[in-house]
């Protein structure tokens, strides 16, 4: 994985992820990401369920996630993958429930404003039932567990990559309101990643994480034009690297084609 025990396939994932970020999630990297996920790279498995179409299935990847679900010693990356699987399968139902919750909140607000006191308790009860239903969703519980474990690792290891991951999970949660806490996590991870980058500018996971936070929307992170350019330049450099021979051979064996057009 990217945070520790960094290996060749992890490096390939960074190359492909940077292509996605620079090309705004075009389909160019979809088949290589699928190949990488089939080979067991955990971040690629997470990504696969984010980019796959609802009618697409891959038994090689599905079986790996089934093992994650059965495994009693899951790490936060496993929980993210599990959450993505459930969101891919039940995304419509999740969004429908979220809309019901938002509708109920608005109705309750109107009752409070117009002092319909006799109905407030009843409407609050309905809202609580809907929110309880959401909290019991497999995708919700997996995301909550992933965030909990990620933040624990940040406090334990003081590695800003974990803090950035924690903030990204906040954004990923469909019901999470992006508030001051999330923005502070992004800001702090940026400051710490810049320090790590200054000490070791050749560290690929640090480069990748820093580039992500420097190119995020200003609604999440206030970056200067200079910082945004640095982040974009890092993404370009990482995206234009060749894939490993290990992944290239697997892609060839599976009959996948990888587009090699250089990114500008």
Radius of gyration (CA) equals 20 Å
* Shape estimate: globular
Count of DSSP H/I helices: 12
Strand content: under 5%
Give the strand tally: 0
As a percent range, the share of helical residues equals over 70%
Overall pLDDT: 89
From N to C, what is the helix and strand string?
HHHHHHHHHHHH
Q: How would you sum up the major sheet?
A: none
- The secondary structure category is mainly alpha
Sum this structure up briefly:
The protein is mostly helical and 264 residues long. The protein has helices at 8-22, 30-38, 42-51, 59-70, 76-113, 117-135, 138-157, 160-172, 180-199, 204-214, 225-239, 245-254.
Could you describe the 3D structure shown?
The protein has 264 residues and is an all-alpha fold. The chain is built from twelve helices and no strands. It has helices spanning 8-22, 30-38, 42-51, 59-70, 76-113, 117-135, 138-157, 160-172, 180-199, 204-214, 225-239, 245-254. Helix 2 packs across helix 12. The longest helix is centred in the middle third of the chain and has 38 residues, at 76-113. The model has no long low-confidence stretch (mean pLDDT 89).
Features of this protein?
264 residues, mainly alpha, 12 helices
């Amino acid at each position: 994985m990217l945070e520790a025990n960094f290996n060749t396939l992890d490096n390939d994932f960074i190359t492909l992820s940077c292509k996605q970020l620079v090309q705004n999630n075009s389909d160019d990297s979809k088949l290589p990401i699928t190949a990488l996920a089939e080979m067991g790279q955990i971040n690629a498995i997470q990504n696969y369920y984010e980019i796959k179409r609802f009618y697409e299935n891959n038994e090689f990847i599905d079986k790996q996630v089934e093992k994650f679900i059965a495994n009693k010693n899951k790490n936060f990356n496993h929980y993210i993958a599990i959450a993505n699987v459930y969101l891919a399968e039940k995304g419509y139902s999740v969004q429908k429930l979220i809309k019901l919750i938002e509708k109920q909140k608005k109705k309750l607000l109107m009752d409070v404003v117009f002092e319909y006191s006799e109905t407030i308790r009843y409407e609050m009860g309905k809202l609580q039932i809907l929110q309880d239903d959401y909290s019991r969703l497999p995708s919700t519980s997996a995301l909550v567990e992933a965030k909990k474990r990620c933040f624990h690792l940040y406090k334990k290891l003081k590695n800003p990559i974990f803090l950035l991951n924690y903030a990204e999970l906040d954004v990923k949660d469909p019901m999470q309101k992006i508030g001051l806490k999330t923005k502070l996590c992004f800001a702090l991870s940026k400051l710490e990643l810049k320090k790590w980058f200054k000490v070791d500018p050749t560290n690929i996971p640090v480069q990748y994480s820093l580039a992500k936070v420097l190119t995020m929307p200003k609604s999440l992170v206030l970056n200067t034009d200079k910082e945004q350019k640095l982040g974009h330049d890092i993404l370009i450099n990482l995206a234009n690297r060749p894939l490993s021979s290990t992944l290239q051979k697997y892609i060839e064996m599976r009959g996948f084609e990888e587009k090699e057009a250089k990114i500008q």
